[in-house]
Amino acid sequence: MKAESVSLEKKIALFSRAPLFGGLSPEAQVELAGIATSRHFVKNDIVFQSQEPCDAFTIVEQGLVRVSRYSATGKRLTYLLAGPGEPLNLVGPFTGASRDYVAEACTEASIIFIERKAFTGFAFDHPQLIITIIDILGQAVDSSNSRIMDMLDKKVIQRLKRVLHTLSEKFGPVLNITAMEIADLTSTTTESALRVLSDLRQSGVIETSRGRIVIQKPEALIDPECEDLWI
Amino acid sequence: MKAESVSLEKKIALFSRAPLFGGLSPEAQVELAGIATSRHFVKNDIVFQSQEPCDAFTIVEQGLVRVSRYSATGKRLTYLLAGPGEPLNLVGPFTGASRDYVAEACTEASIIFIERKAFTGFAFDHPQLIITIIDILGQAVDSSNSRIMDMLDKKVIQRLKRVLHTLSEKFGPVLNITAMEIADLTSTTTESALRVLSDLRQSGVIETSRGRIVIQKPEALIDPECEDLWI
DNA sequence: CGGTCCCTTGAGCCACTTCAACTCACGTGG
DNA sequence: CCACGTGAGTTGAAGTGGCTCAAGGGACCG
């Protein structure tokens, strides 16, 4: 079997696992894989930069990618931590415009690129895909608005617990994530996040080591009357 | 001319003014008007409620409508103040699912309804409309994320100025809006908003009276390095 | 003319941010 | 292999913005 075929198989396998493309027929997944290319990134590489026009749809094949915005004072707001099967940009491919988000590889990562016009052409041929995209964007809006409301009526510890809970649902109990990343997801400072993590460690809810957090008591993170975030 | 024709003309006129439908051909606007119905609401009427499935696309014909979410502790976060030509729900028509937003008439208002399947069918026939919808959703995400970042590194007075500036760009210098609405848009308490408004009044930037704010010095509201919000 | 909603202002408090200093783990280049 | 730099984690102390609670005045509506 040729290398290209191996690569094609991998792309198809990824698409069939990706929620975004789950509803597509096998033929459609093959078609999509045919126009997709894959690129490799090392840790801290920039997948795409703020202020640069969008020319491709991107989806994570392997690794972890952080999509975030930087404020005027240098604070970082992390909007999405994407693992395998998760798309990094849903709006850009349709508008072609630049947006204020930066995508950085948190770990070594492979990203699949599909030229934007080819992707949107494909999407318009598959209405269900359009609906899914709109649905995901709706969840993104809801999640951001939830974060605003949480900042109004929840303490840092509650917000941070919610972030940890959502992350453990998504990636499992072992999180290879720094406290700084957690702070950026919780909308607080690194110091405050560290203090709360320290408290949680002392009460046996988590264990921490450099760049790693292990959830020991997932049930302690659950806040009643509080659905998960979309991160 | 029959009453129905008059009503049809009005709908077409509205669609031609609405940014969402601006790019459509006159024929398409006529088609859309043919499947649209109009309903009247008095002040404080609920246009649609949280937790109820979406069965229609809605767009404001006349008046002002507030779309907001309520937090567990009863705080209200206003997500959109919609005037004539602005859609109230872009996601619901595609998914049919309920969302956590409440739409209330701030003033007497006329709202145009289009049955959701008819609307989505129409949208899929007009790809440009889909692109515009995705673009607007992207702006909504960006705006919510901007609000989060503003809460991190801006004081209430700066956030409130930005809200006033955006509102005056959208609705003109005379705002028939209460301080409470401003607070809900600024993500702060009514008291804090009132205090800031009081300061702005004393420095001659605005004039206020019950339920009304008049911008006297629009230039004083502009914060350098800060684009407008999408409200 | 009574009630409700909006506006106004004061006083106190407290969760967080900020600033600062220090330790530790890791990798890298001399 | 060691020295050094960098980035993460840790903890303390101090200051404060704006939230909360409270109390009252005035406008509009039924």
Structure in words:
2 copies of one chain form a homodimer. With 231 residues, chain A is of the alpha+beta class. Helix content of chain A is 44%, strand content 22%. Chain A has helices spanning 3-17, 26-34, 92-95, 116-125, 127-153, 156-171, 179-186, 190-202; strands at residues 36-41, 46-48, 56-62, 65-70, 76-82, 102-105, 109-115, 174-175, 206-209, 212-215. A 4-stranded antiparallel β-sheet of chain A has the order 2-6-4-5. Chain A has a 3-stranded antiparallel β-sheet with strand order 1-7-3. In chain A, helix 1 crosses helix 2 and helix 6 (156-171) packs across helix 7. The longest helix of chain A is centred in the middle third of the chain and has 27 residues, at 127-153. The N and C termini of chain A lie far apart (39 Å). In chain A, 40% of the residues are buried. Chain A binds chain B through residues 69, 71-73, 75, 77, 79, 90-91, 94-95, 97, 99-100, 120, 124, 127, 130-131, 133-135, 137-138, 140-142, 144-145, 147-149, 151-153, 187, 225-226, and chain B through 69, 71-73, 75, 77, 79, 90-91, 94-95, 97, 99-100, 120, 124, 127, 130-131, 133-135, 137-138, 140-142, 144-145, 147-149, 151-153, 187, 225-226. Chain B binds a DNA duplex (30 and 30 nucleotides) through residues 155-156, 178-180, 188-192, 194-195, 197-198, 208-211.
